[in-house]
């Protein structure tokens, strides 16, 4: 496990217009060494694909293929999210003015002492303030 993976990066892998060399390098790293994500990651990724389909950005068959692609990646789901939501995630959300969802990624990165792969500007700023390393910055 090499990093904590945020959906801003994972979903960018699914859309050619969002792919950059840095984003694709993270895909190579995740494929080689794996990643970890909070328990909300699969639902959040699926929602991003469903929204893209509803907006006409992708077709239903492509959404299904992309769902399979993301599901097949070596991403370990951190199941401690629910038990830590009130005690660890909420204070991070408050301190750094993050959504609870973004704070969950930061909490995992802090707890596991792993860098965070994200392009989300608020999460980048919070990670920098918290001393978390960044793999991809917004």
Folded structure, characterized:
- The protein is mainly alpha-helical.
- The chain has one domain (4-136): Rossmann fold (3-Layer(aba) Sandwich), CATH 3.40.50.1010.
- The chain is 62% helix and 11% strand.
- It has seven helices and five strands; from the N terminus they run βααβααβααβαβ.
- The chain has helices spanning 7-12, 21-33, 41-54, 60-72, 81-96, 100-112, 121-130, and strands at residues 4-5, 35-38, 75-78, 116-117, 134-136.
- It has a three-stranded parallel beta sheet. It has a two-stranded parallel sheet with strand order 2-3.
- The protein is globular.
- The mean pLDDT is 94.
Largest sheet composition = 3 strands, parallel
* Tally of DSSP helical segments: 7
Instruction: Specify the CATH homologous superfamily.
Output: 5'-nuclease
The span between the termini is 22 Å
CATH topology-level fold name: Rossmann fold
Structural class: mainly alpha
Using only CA atoms, what is the Rg? 14 Å
- Low-confidence stretches are none
Order of helices and strands: EHHEHHEHHEHE
Shape: globular
Average pLDDT works out at: 94
**How many beta strands in the DSSP annotation?**
5
């Amino acid at each position: 496990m090499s990093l904590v993976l945020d959906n801003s990066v994972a979903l960018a892998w699914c859309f050619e217009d969002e792919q950059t060399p840095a984003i694709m390098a993270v895909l190579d790293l995740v494929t080689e060494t794996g990643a970890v994500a909070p328990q909300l990651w699969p639902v959040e990724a699926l929602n991003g694909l469903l929204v893209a389909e509803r907006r006409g950005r992708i077709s239903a068959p492509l959404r299904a293929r992309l769902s399979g692609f993301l599901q097949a990646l070596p991403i370990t789901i951190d199941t401690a999210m629910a038990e830590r939501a009130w005690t660890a995630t909420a204070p991070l959300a408050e301190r750094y003015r993050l959504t609870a969802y973004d704070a969950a990624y930061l909490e995992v990165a802090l707890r596991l002492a792993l860098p965070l792969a994200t392009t989300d500007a608020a999460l980048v700023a919070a990670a920098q303030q918290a001393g978390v390393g960044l793999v991809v910055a917004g």
